[in-house]
Amino acid sequence: MARALYIHWPFCLAKCPYCDFNSHVRDSVDNAAWQAALLAEMRHEHSVSGGEALDSIFFGGGTPSLMPPALVERLLVEAQALWGFADGIEITLEGNPSSVEAANYADLAQAGINRASLGIQSLDNQVLRWLGRLHNAEEGLEALEVAQQHFARVSFDLIYALPGQSPAQWQAELARALAFGTGHLSLYQLTIEPGTKFATMVRQNEFTPLDNDAAADLFELTRSLTNAAGLPAYEISNHARLGEESRHNLTYWRYHDYAGIGPGAHGRRGGMATVRHKKPENWLAAVAAKGDGLSEERALSVSEQASEALLMGLRLREGIDLAGLSLRFGIGAAELIDPAKLAFYQTQGLAWADGNRIGVSPAGMPLLDALLGELVGTALVSA
User: Which architecture characterizes domain 4-253 according to CATH?
Assistant: First the structure.
């Protein structure tokens, strides 16, 4: 049963050129209508996913820090009434580091948010402008300071492996970021996603992405600096002090069930994959018509579930419990992971095995996508 709830707020003040998330710019938002629709979706998910106490809630987007704190509080009150909250529940809200949004942090903390994730993205004003961000570096750091005053746990994002970025530039920026003392950092290499403005710009030769070898060097540098600072990678792009890992994201990567509500939100419960309508207006209309915004509810085959569990779990430093997954899905371990290829990549230092657990080594993480294609059983990949 689902022990995690994801709530999607799709609105942003502007669309960043690298972003392929379900985000939309609107002149105005009817907060009362959105509250009613999100509450309806929450009740629908509870009615079909059971009543186990929630261990985590995540407000993602879009820019959920633009939500009125009173709306956030109302949703949390309803979630607690429906599911109940586990002791020490983690309640995260993503936000952009503008002064307007930072002014809401005290009220958001009062509403129940106890973990903030800030999209700072860069500490350089020129880079921020290129990334299409509306804040500058000073605003970002001021918002970070305010967040640290109000939330017990704070994380922020940075994007690296930018065109022409040197190891010295990234080392200086990351060292500065680590000095702020947050317990979690999400450090993402710039990826040119299809359908984004950046994809068009690359196609039109307006800039050239950093080459793979240079990006791999920056990845290794990232691992070295975060390890030394006591924030080792627990997932390919996420770094945390022990105990400060994102419990909500671990729900995804460990392939547990979660409920997802709001436009474009995905969920997984009882072997079913759920998807909501992406366009805000279509989602609102669907909720008004039938009480939920579902556009798809599909039974996942056992082989699909096993494949997804492997692809997600091998992103983690902890790897996967191969025997446990074999028992969970009723599929032989040798069908889940090709034993000959696992043995080969162990000799290359790119994979590891320790009893029932297997994983991708730090040296293999820069090659993760290729390794997944090699290690995961061919019957699952083709399923």
Answer: Alpha-Beta Barrel (3.20)
Half-sphere exposure of 255 (CA within 13 A, CB side): 23
Tokens 């994801």 sit on residue: 6
Instruction: Convert the pLDDT of each residue in 23-35 to its tens digit.
Output: 999 989 999 999 9
Q: What CATH code is assigned to 302-381?
A: 1.10.10.920
High-pLDDT (> 90) share of the chain, %: 91
Kindly report the pTM of this predicted structure.
Answer: 0.95
- Helix, coil or strand: residue 16: coil
**In whole angstroms, what is the distance from residue 182 CA to residue 263 CA?**
31
Q: Report, as an integer, the average pLDDT of 280-306.
A: 96
Q: Could you identify the residue written with the tokens 């975060």?
A: 226
Q: What is the phi/psi pair of residue 184, to 5°?
A: -150, 140
Q: Where are the domains of the chain?
A: 4-253, 302-381
pLDDT, position 20: 83
Residue pair 24/62 in contact (Cβ under 8 Å)? The answer is: yes
Residue 105, SS3 per DSSP: helix
Separation of CA 192 from chain center: 17
Q: How far is residue 327's CA from residue 322's CA, in Å, rounded to a whole number?
A: 9
